[in-house]
């Protein structure tokens, strides 16, 4: 046995972080719990629509936002659902995001369109763009639509799934406020820059990848900080650009690491992917990009986000796409798990599990803090609070 | 101070792996050295063409292969250059790859084409497809071409750069023999599945991302094994699907981990990306996919790889793409590095450094083993060996 001496805090971090990082699997555990109250899906949407309409948002725009946010919660992505409603309400109230216009097409070719989001709500811009991409894919095989002048648009997967529900492949990307630190740097100049791909697999089955290009979301680090537990390797760096297993220095002047973590574990690849997303969004779109996107939670100027929406028609290629897709994802699911691991999943399966759980509950379970937050918002806006199951 | 007791081998691994993984940067060091002999770029190509023609390959096909392989070495990706020549020579000699045909278009729409690679050399198929994608992008904004019946095609970036050299964005993807183990699994059923994006930035500058979706390439692990040094976290798993810092169990029945490494450090994201590449290649293309692709180095049956080639016309979107692209990459390069780190780079910069070094040497430097390998192959095929600088 070798004896390794290290400072106690460091040892704690080494022990915890290393034990966490060497496990090949850890099972994404949803925080939703049997003790929480649940709200029916349609009631969540009703509540969101009422709040947004109350502050002057067009009903059709409110409905698009409500569908995206409720879908996020339904899929277990609570950070991007009801949790963000007050932000959207405030954006409309302040006028920093508008509702009295519609997106416009600035330029169009058979397979592409360049759209001005006109500073409308993200889901309004995204829904317009993805519809257009789908039309083009049905006509010429691919539709590739880029927007400038957009805003935060909820979960990227919602847009991709609009295409997969129609038997097409769908992709969506957005840039975001800078939070991610490029490999070897110390300053966050790129967004979490998510990408999404949804592909149909027949019989209601599908592959749905919806992922930030940073290793972890800011929210996960904030949660670890609140619970006072260390974060694993590869999640965040401090203000000197040094990887930290302590969440505090990351949240205080540090930033998110790209997927892959440090350089030797592949972080330059995640950084390359974050750049790919920015290229499709801010650079192609002539929108704000990189460090000149307004800071997260800062609404003194318009966001002018760039977003990209792609639809691909599998009928333009080899017949039988869905059969092969189903075969591949079932092959993955049937793989023998590694020692100590749960069942092998494919992208979209954790969300399916959450949706099944909601089905059994008769609605979406929310943490008591979120129930209270919803009641407070209802009172503040004089809107009917959501009814529980 | 806390005292942490662990087995000596483990401590060695913990110490080494942890020290390696906590450094935010480590500088990708090229193995090319001042003491190595160098071969002029055109002479490398001449040699490759002569070898391939000698065993019956069409001259035009040989030239495409030679350009891809020499470019790989020029860019410092030695594993995919001259190093692979004997494999291509053997493929043609054995007839498992052919040369007496040309790729054919099976189906075509304005923005897409579905191509039969006819079991030709990968670079022949890829060159045909990317040319077609570029034409379509110039006409309708995007060209998206998928091929089945292809073979190993060298570096993905070579295809993407054909588009960026013409002022377009280019992407390429290929599936490969299974080497990557999905998150929570123990068996390798996906390929290294690389993706590539090249975007022009004016004045000969560009962004060129060319990356496998596994954390590391098999070759890197083999190198560590030969040098008897541990591998960092997130590179490989043993045959039980457990992460290993010892290269031997990885090479002996184990496999490569997806980008992100273990589940908690984001490995399910790299696994999702490997699936994305397979969806674009084997699934869209009706080619071999996943576990049914023949094993690496096994040539008893055709490969029938799937590949995808995309070209995007930036003029279909916001004017001034190259100016913004240049601004973003220069912004990254000018970032203050983290403590102890070298200059911040963007994807394509390490390759640029290698090319500059070759320029100064008057040719591509090769390890003595590769020089010998070239001489042996020349003797075996009765071809003029390459002249050194």
UniProtKB/TrEMBL annotation, chains A, B:
InterPro entries: Mal/L-sulf/L-lact_DH-like_ah, Mal/L-sulf/L-lact_DH-like_NADP, Mal/L-sulfo/L-lacto_DH-like_sf, Malate/L-lactate_DH-like
Keyword set, alphabetical order: Oxidoreductase
SUPFAM superfamilies attached to this UniProt entry: L-sulfolactate dehydrogenase-like
One MF annotation (Gene Ontology) recorded for this entry: oxidoreductase activity
Family of the protein in this entry: Belongs to the LDH2/MDH2 oxidoreductase family.
Name this protein carries in UniProt: Malate dehydrogenase
Organism: Potamilus streckersoni
